[in-house]
Design goal:
The chain is built from 17 helices and 12 strands. Helix 4 runs antiparallel to helix 6 and helix 12 packs antiparallel against helix 13. It has a 5-stranded mixed sheet with strand order 5-6-1-7-8, sandwiched between helices. A 4-stranded antiparallel sheet has the order 9-12-10-11. It has 3 domains: 65 residues, MutS, DNA mismatch repair protein, domain I, CATH 3.40.1170.60; 56 residues, 5' to 3' exonuclease, C-terminal subdomain (DNA polymerase, domain 1, Orthogonal Bundle); 165 residues, DNA polymerase, Y-family, little finger domain (Dna Ligase, domain 1), CATH 3.30.1490. A hairpin with an 8-residue loop joins strand 2 and strand 3.
Length: 407
Amino acid sequence: MINRQIIIHVDMDAFYASVETRDDPSLRGKPLIIGALPSERGVVSTCSYEARKYGVHSAMSIKEAYRLCPQGIYMHPNFYKYRNVSEQLRAIWNDYAVKMETVALDEAYLDVTYSAGDFERAGEMAREIKTRTRNELGLTCSVGVAYSKTAAKTASEEKKPDGYFEIPTAQDFVALMIDRDVRSLYTVGAKTAEKLNKLGIYTIRDIQQRKDEIRKRFGKHGCLITDLAFGIDDRKVIAYKPEDTKSISREITFQEDVNDRQLIEDVLFLLALSVEDRAKRRNLHGGGVTLKLTYADMRSITRSRVIPSAENAGVIYRETTRLLEEVEHSRVRGVGAGIYNLSGDSGWQMTLDDYLEEPTAGTQQIIENKLKELGQRYHLDFAGNKDKIVRGDILYRTAEYMRKLHK
């Protein structure tokens, strides 16, 4: 009888950068940085291991990345391509997992407790995943096999890149971690580590020795930290369901601040189309619309409105522009649109005509009219290229083209 979990954690190596390098071998061995371009606002999404040698890392300001690595190759991310590769990865992972919990496009926990039966077979599965990922997709991943989610993630990070590591028991986890910095422990971020350091707590061993004090000072989080320090983690792998997503949104940061209300509305329409596209691909339905604005002084505001059906682009556009009328009119750095209160219920959905007081031409007519209007204003075939414009880098570049025409 199996009385303990067996979990595989798969983490792709520098995923976006690796996909780009696979598709363009001339990038191999070079410091590749995916995110904004050096002349633009933005941050690093990910980077190759060659770029990391210069100190570049995810979420770093692109200006700082360029200061550290001016010789790097800078590219915008192609999320449409990465999502397609992610779907191929999940098809491989699904061949082994009884339950799979995806964390991002490139990372997942696989519950193989019953499909493997023991650690030996789980190890064979993990190596098969690595081999298939390389042979079928031309990519590498790091894989950890362990008794818990925390230990499995720790194991996958132990030998990166292209690594493999096992942590069979809590005792093995403690032996590996006990003299490491508190930051190496799951849930201990920079702020928590700073608080622990002020108390003279620097290592996992320190956490163990001062367990009661930490639990008293940090409450539930302290209990979690001390449990993990002893290798205790009973969390289950939770199979991902699209309807568990809390919201779907798209945002754009302009390369120069804008104050043209017409331009902001036009970009909101493109964002609405993109949100609709995402919702359709996940078969999700929204119950509310959100508008987000980031002003030139970096203030961000979010406004929302509950409505019966919020996955149609016409509805999203109409409601976000109405919300726009209710907020401060000032120079804007970025704009976003989204939906929330998501569900996978594919039952009858009310249309705009069902709940707006004034009559409308219908949501589809709103979309068609706006596409025609944009085509005339910006001299682009928005209607014919709608499916392309709403995805990835093309959306960003289209919005920037529109901004420049408005200058």
